[in-house]
Design a protein that fits this description.
single chain; 188 residues; alpha+beta; 40% helix
């Protein structure tokens, strides 16, 4: 721990699992940010010239695609919420995909529109990173986008479509890009 004491084994395992989960989720978000760029090539020029718009793009990727379409939790105690009773140890399903595509919350929820995040008030606490893992994920998305925006590449005939409500949510065959005239490493 921060005081130099050895952590209990259970806590170490939990921390390692969180770290592994963060990297797996990050790799999925990177793929989805690539898919979004491939499906919306008209955004490439704007992303190259407007670093602030990159954040809007990333927030929209996080909203539009669902790495985890739902989450499950168990109540620790009984309670009422909006006239609904939840007993102790009740399993509860959170529909993340549904929330991120709900027409009462989002204008044209099935459309990929990074401009919806130009107004900083649209970036609520539910989309802003609140953990180190989420911050790392966003940084990895920025780095991968930066690479894609600075290099020349093409994509062979592939189907990128994925069902956002499936588990795991991902393009069925991944994404295969062919890079050419790559001068990325010359700048380093």
């Amino acid at each position: 721990d921060t005081s130099g004491y050895i952590l209990p084994a259970k806590e170490v395992v939990q921390e390692l699992l969180l770290l592994i989960r963060a990297f797996v989720a990050s790799s999925r978000w990177v793929v989805f940010s690539q898919a979004a760029l491939l499906e919306n090539p008209e955004l490439k020029e704007r992303l190259q010239g407007d670093k602030g718009y990159v954040n809007c793009f990333i927030y929209e990727v996080l909203r539009y695609y669902s790495v985890i379409p739902f989450s499950v939790a168990k109540t620790k105690q009984q309670f009422f919420w909006k006239d609904m009773f939840f007993p102790n140890k009740q399993l509860v399903l959170f529909d993340i995909y549904g929330t991120n595509h709900h027409p009462d919350l989002w204008t044209e929820p099935e459309a990929f529109q990074p401009d919806r995040f130009l107004d900083e008030s649209a970036v609520g606490t539910e989309t802003a990173p609140d953990t180190a893992a989420e911050s790392i994920t966003m940084q990895l998305m920025r780095v991968s986008l930066s690479y894609l925006l600075r290099t020349d590449w093409m994509m062979s005939d592939q189907k990128l479509h994925c069902q956002g409500s499936e588990v795991p949510a991902r393009p069925k065959n991944g994404i295969r890009l062919e890079f050419y005239h790559e001068d990325f490493y010359e700048d380093i």
